Fold this sequence. Notes:
The longest helix is centred in the first third of the chain and has 35 residues, at 3-37. The protein has two domains: 1-153, CATH 2.40.50.140; 178-325 and 386-494, BirA Bifunctional Protein, domain 2, CATH 3.30.930.10. The strands form five sheets. The chain has an eight-stranded mixed sheet with strand order 6-10-11-20-19-18-15-14, with helices on both faces. A five-stranded mixed barrel has the order 1-2-3-5-4. It is elongated, with a radius of gyration of 29 Å. Helix 7 (170-176) crosses helix 8 (178-201), helix 8 crosses helix 10 and helix 11 packs across helix 13 (368-379). It contains 16 helices and 20 strands. It has helices spanning 3-37, 54-59, 61-64, 102-105, 107-113, 163-168, 170-176, 178-201, 242-250, 288-307, 330-337, 348-357, 368-379, 433-448, 459-468, 479-487, and strands at residues 68-81, 84-91, 94-101, 121-130, 136-147, 205-206, 212-213, 225-228, 233-237, 255-263, 275-284, 311-314, 317-320, 326-329, 388-391, 403-404, 407-411, 413-418, 421-428, 472-478. The protein is α+β, with helices and mostly antiparallel strands.
Amino acid sequence: MNSDERTNMAIEDEAQSEERLNEMRQIRREKLKKLQAAGRNPFLIETWDVTAYSQDIKDEFEALDGHWASIAGRVMANRHMGKASFIDVQDKQGRIQVYVKQDAITPEEYEIFLTYDIGDIVGVEGTVFKTRHGEISVKAERVVLLSKSLQILPNKFHGLRDQELRYRQRYVDLIMNPEVRDVFITRARIIKEIKRYLEDERDFLEVDTPILTTIAGGANARPFNTHHNTLDLDMKLRISNELYLKRLTVGGLDRVYEMGKMFRNEGMDRNHNPEYTSMELYQAYANLETMMDITENVVANAAKVALGSAVIEYQGASFDVTPPWERLSMQDAVKKWAGEDFDKIQTDEEAREAAKRHGLEDWETMSRGIVIAELFEKYCEDHLDGPVFITGHPVEISPLAKRDPKDPRITRRFEAYINCWEIANAFSELNDPIDQYQRFKDQQEQLEQGDEEAHPMDEDYVNALEVGLPPTGGLGIGIDRVIMLITDSPSIRDIILFPTMKPLEG
């Protein structure tokens, strides 16, 4: 058989499979019509009193044996044997077997029960018992159809394997793949622990800041643009909440944080989604070292809650996030992996020669600081297994960070890396309004020259600094990346319930 014949057979098989699925869907609709005609419309039922869940029943069997229980969930398997049947019901904790006997629920109800399909949602009342084979089950005294499934769930042996389809139909993914549900339960536990630590141990206040704004500030990134019709105003989705949070610190809220969605109109890969979850916090009268301490504890505590240990196993690699973490300056990293010693390269002209040697694009116009940053990105990031703090970022790439008093060419900033990923970014915040205005002005010029990621001028923020921002430490953590690491998830789309997807054509 040649390749064309195999292709034709595959097309025919797919067509026949879709035809069978359509027939099965039609049968389900006919069953629903009969139920509705008999006054048994499941979609009219509003509630069911759930008193127990599958895993709790199993864990507490000795106390519950012989006692009444009311459960609800989705039928995931059925085995009919004349006047008795077994079904597997899946709820939020897992699955439990239900024994349904004709005599226990009446022959009439049993006939209706036999029409229920895999995927249907049922409520069951009965007693807890253990079968002769030792399986903890519920012996039904009442079974009620609470919702009729009109679609066909994937084959139980093959499951839902198409990764793209799993992201698009997360609701089916969660039903068919219990480990996916576990990831999102773990995600919720990690977020809860982070908030607990900040609020209970660090006395931070959770706040909300605008998502729609006229100036997409706080970072160097390309924003999404939108328009407010009533005000006839062009607006943007936020790329960061930094400048609003620091305004609150100016106002006297000394410790604030916000965890929420950010939006960047940029590329997509296994570490990037245009809509993602980030957390930023600001603490007055604190500095870079305070932010390092918070970063270490946020990640270590999250790992312990999820894994029971501060050792993260990710895709075959192991990362011990127990504090303290390694510290390494960007300049030392460039010396180590790019082979360029910037203690000996002091001028822009000398730095450009280094950039030329390493084949950097547009090297003719680069400053010394930009060359350091470009060499770091090209040669160093892939070596940062971590956890490690990279410090000493050039002022050219850090428009919101305080200058280092020992060397004003660099800033009091760090980026934290684990698995060669940046997971956190922090500053001793720039609170000099004159310096800030000049940096914004320089960035605005780059923006006007075509750099879509340059930071725009924000005169109101400069005004806030003129009112007076106390010495402040600020920190941003990529929550999605931390969760990826802790849950051993290979893609950011595995830990976002509904990742950004291109609509299907047709």
